[in-house]
Amino acid sequence: MKLPETQTILLTRDNGVLHVTLNRPEARNAMSLAMVEELMATFEAVESDAGVRALVLRGSGGHFCAGGDIKDMAGARQKAAEGDREAFFRLNRRFGEMITRANRLPAVLITVLEGAVMGGGFGLACVSDVALAAGDARFALPETGLGVIPAQIAPFVVQRLGLTQARRLALTGARFDGHRALALGLVHEVADSAEELDKKLAELLTQVRRCAPGANRATKALVLDVDQVPMAELLDRAAREFADAVNGDEGQEGTLAFVQKRAPSWAGDRD
């Protein structure tokens, strides 16, 4: 896989895992349009490379993402003042396209949440397959307090937390920490030190590497299509994919490894 050239994110590949670090620490990794485009290019590269087992998304400088970039908003306002009625629409919708792509990413998407997890950062947490959080991370949907709406984020918040909690958080702008995020079901594990957080991430990646890459991709697509595809059609597709998996290389290797009481070949995959 050829990684894109980037300026707002850092990319490092290691043993089937692509580490993506939001890298605008001076702005608490606020989501600029440039960052959105670089993430889109990165996701496109991952989609075409079955060797990427997981993508780990985190932020530099002690923060995950503080939301949208004020400079981009100001730029869109200037364009609107000059007669471009679609400036704000295009800016907001492009973020929606990025988060939708993140949601459907075939690789396992892991978010490591520290510091500010606001607005767009909150949305990214909601589309991750596994979310790890620092106990003192700060979560919020602050949009309505700024006179705007969480337009592209709200549907994913509802899917993650359910309608009742999504309504409360979006309509109050309530702030809460990582432990409360765990209780709400937003994140899966919490750590109270940087060392513990890194340890949990390492353990999680070990678990992911025990799973067959193709089986993981097919399983993720299957669960994401629940409520999107009629149930009978979905189960027919699942049965076909199960039969293909059983007779495929991964199914045969997994069965043989189980009988021989050894790790399957993919558990030791390296770049």
UniProtKB/TrEMBL annotation:
Cited SUPFAM superfamilies: ClpP/crotonase
Q: Whose protein is this, by species?
A: Alloalcanivorax marinus
Q: Which InterPro entries match?
A: ClpP/crotonase-like_dom_sf, Enoyl-CoA_hydra/iso, Enoyl-CoA_hydra_C, Enoyl-CoA_Hydratase/Isomerase
| Signal peptide location | none
What family name appears in the similarity comment?
A: Belongs to the enoyl-CoA hydratase/isomerase family.
Citing just one GO molecular function, the answer is:
catalytic activity
- Quote the protein name from its UniProt record: Enoyl-CoA hydratase/isomerase family protein
For this entry, list what GO says about its biological process. Answer: isoprenoid catabolic process
Q: Which Gene3D superfamilies match?
A: 2-enoyl-CoA Hydratase, Chain A, domain 1 (3.90.226.10), Lyase 2-enoyl-coa Hydratase, Chain A, domain 2 (1.10.12.10)
